[in-house]
Amino acid sequence: MIHAEGLTAGYPKGGDVLQGLTFSLGSGLVHGLIGPNGAGKTTLLRVLAGQLQHNGDVRVFDTDPFDEPAVMDRTVLAGIDAPLPDGWSVKKLLAVGAARYRGWNGRRAEELVERFDLPQKKSYMSLSRGQKSAASLVLACASGCELLLLDEPYLGLDVEKREEFYRILREEMERQPRTIVLSTHHLHESEKLLDTVLFIDAGRVHINGPAQDLAEQILEIVGPADDVDRVLNRLGPVPELRRDEMSIGRRSVIDLRGRPQLADAVFDTARQVSGRVRVSEVTLEQVVLAMSGEER
To answer: InterPro entries this protein is in (predicted)?
Structure first.
């Protein structure tokens, strides 16, 4: 569905935001686009949506997306950072969506407006932040587009509406084969939805692959410092993403993606070394925090 090689993009006054990105995203999956603020997530989505010029090779539906109707007619970019016209009412936005997209589903649009309790006569400008996010999501889901690019589409939604948002995404994947690229910071909420992860930081790719691999191949080892060191020494050279000194000893997060065959050996080695060493899988959020060096 999407392939980039050596992708570089930015803005005239701000310079390059993306620097030589190479990655692939398959069709019919939910891809999590993650990274800290300023990493270039919105810039990347704009490139994929055909809105921003770039250097390097980028293919969406096997075509360079920039200003290309064959791509833009099958793609929708939604989120507060992709704003809609201020003076248009929600009702007019839906009417324009019906005229714009060949696969428009008016019944689905009406259903989602009701579920988000959107006031149809209000202008986009007068909507709350959460209502703007909801209006953008309604347009995306009702568009019938094959590729949904969602740029933090939950911003401003309260807990109840965010839960509704995730239910709607699950429904969309069941109702109609779609490819969704979801830019998110809410990894603890979205993790179960994601098939793959594309983690970018400082304009570069750090992870591009199945979310399940991260869960199985990045492990946490906790125990007395000497025992943790003995486990690591027996395993041989493996990347250590993070090391924390704790009151009970040491916590180490190791990356086995280069040597996945060692995953079972880690658990066995920990049992052999000491009954005081605990090995466990980590959440996607913990992986990202470890790789970015942030505190959890």
So the answer is: AAA+_ATPase, ABC_transporter-like_ATP-bd, P-loop_NTPase
- β-bridge mates for residue 281, sequence order: 219
Tokens of 12: 């005239």
Could you read off the pLDDT of 77-120 as tens digits, one per residue? 999 888 789 999 999 999 999 999 999 999 999 999 999 999 99
User: What is the rounded distance in angstroms from the CA atom of residue 125 to the CA atom of residue 89?
Assistant: 9
DSSP code per residue over 58-114: EEETTB--TT-HHHHTTEEEESTTSPPPTT-BHHHHHHHHHHH-TT--HHHHHHHHH
Q: Is 196 exposed, middle or buried (0-12, 13-18, 19+ CB in 10 A)?
A: buried
Cβ atoms < 10 Å from Cβ of 206: 16
Beta strand spans in the chain (E): 2-11, 15-25, 30-34, 55-60, 75-78, 147-151, 179-183, 196-201, 204-210, 218-223, 240-246, 249-255, 278-281
Residue 281 tokens read as 């899988």
- pLDDT for 293 equals 61
What confidence tier does 296 reach under pLDDT thresholds 50, 70, 90?
very low
**Domains of the chain, earliest start first:** 2-202 (3.40.50.300), 213-292 (3.30.70.240)
